[in-house]
Amino acid sequence: MSTAQLSRTAPRAAGTGRRQAARTGANAARYAAVTLVALLFLLPFYLMVKTAVSPTTDIAGQTFVLWPSDPDWSSFSRVLQDPTFPRALLNSAVMAVVLTGGQIALAAMAGYAMARIPNRAARPLFSATIVVLLIPAATTFLPNFLIVARLGWVDSLRGLIIPGLFSAFNVFLFRQFFLNFPRELEEAGRLDGLGYFGVFRRIVVPNTLAFASALTVLGFVGSWNAFLWPLVVAGGGSGAVTVQVYLSSFLTAQTFDYSGLFAAALLSLVPVLLVFLVLQRWLVRGVAETGMGGG
């Protein structure tokens, strides 16, 4: 290789090396930022575990202890041996599954009817849905409870589930989603002799799973974490005690059992994490398709 060729090759090699170094530095900074954000999200879980295994002196002390020198795991066994805890888990699971499933099914059918079935009542019903969506939930709390009490549903799962089966927010989202659903797919179904319900069940529903899964995860988490309505409907009995109501029993006017509270809270997270792991793929896809994540 001549001297002139060497003089042209050397700057190009140096430029390539600088670009690779810059790319490596950018990737390292990106991974460092992602790791920092992940650690920030994991910080509450660390505090929950640390508090659950810490003695009362460490919890109430003024000095922050990174990790107790003698962790006490008895809080977990104490919660697991409490017969009220599995009952509360079962009530929360039944409420979250039935309530979320009912909300999704009713909202999907109502949204499809408003978006696709020609009917003079569709627009007034959609306007009524918007009005319901704008009404603060606090204003309907007392009337709902009076109806539940009159029907004798206090301290029962019926009182927890049935009043919340209609979700105006989900109906609105499904209606908007079905307005953009490809009509060609529905017309192909009608050519095969399907009616509105057949098209909805065989064509629309299978192509709505990602969107419905995203709403399902959000609805399940919201139902699982509901506190005020289950607290009132439980009425001091054990027939409708949910996990969130059970957790509140660790804090009373006289006692503060923080280790038991955080141990029970950690154990109650397991069902929610399982649901999220199962539906994670559809949740991400649904949020990406609908833009529910905002931004």
TrEMBL record:
CDD domains: TM_PBP2 (cd06261). The keyword Transmembrane applies. Gene3D superfamilies: MetI-like. Residues 1-21 are annotated as: Disordered. Its main location: membrane. The chain crosses the membrane at residues 28-47, 88-113, 125-148, 160-178, 199-221, 227-247, 259-279. Pfam families: BPD_transp_1. Residues 89-279 form the ABC transmembrane type-1 domain. This is Carbohydrate ABC transporter permease. It is a multi-pass membrane protein. It is found in: Cell membrane. Keywords: Cell membrane, Membrane, Transmembrane, Transmembrane helix, Transport. Residues 8-21 have a biased composition (Low complexity). The keyword Signal does not apply.
